[in-house]
Amino acid sequence: MQDEQSLVQRAQRHDREAFARLYEEYFDKIYRYIALKTGNRVEAEDMTQQVFIKALNSISSYKWKGSPFSAWLFRIAHNQMVDYLRKKTRQATVSLDESSVAARDNPQTTTEKKMNIEQLAIATRELTAAQQEVILLRFSGELPIAQVASIMGKSEGAVKALQHSAIVALRKIMKTGEV
Question: For the whole model, what pTM was predicted?
Fold first, then answer.
């Protein structure tokens, strides 16, 4: 955390290398979060770039409040997603490509993995919007409960309850074969 704080402070002083390191550290996590929400790789790439452009433009106003810098980035990504979803009326889908499966897998394993991912993506659509958000932030964003709570503007207890109910619902959906 100290190293992150130092990088942020350097980036606030217009140190390009420091911002580049922050970008490299968080790009994949922000991208996965957005890609799973949009279901569109090209849109996700564009939106992830927009998140970092907004972060670069407003990093000088960032105030260190004890929570990690990533919480601030995910808040920007969350707001970007809210704007995007307001503009879109179609339901998000998850596009799967060959890069999501390791090349060393045999065809049967590859097919099984794709089916499981597709089933999970379909099952996730059955969750409430808040449950979907928690699942995406926790598991594709790899964020701890405290950061998810901060991003969503909820208490840690509420996030834990949402996560628990989402996992229970996903298990039920996946087990009953409704997917």
Answer: 0.62
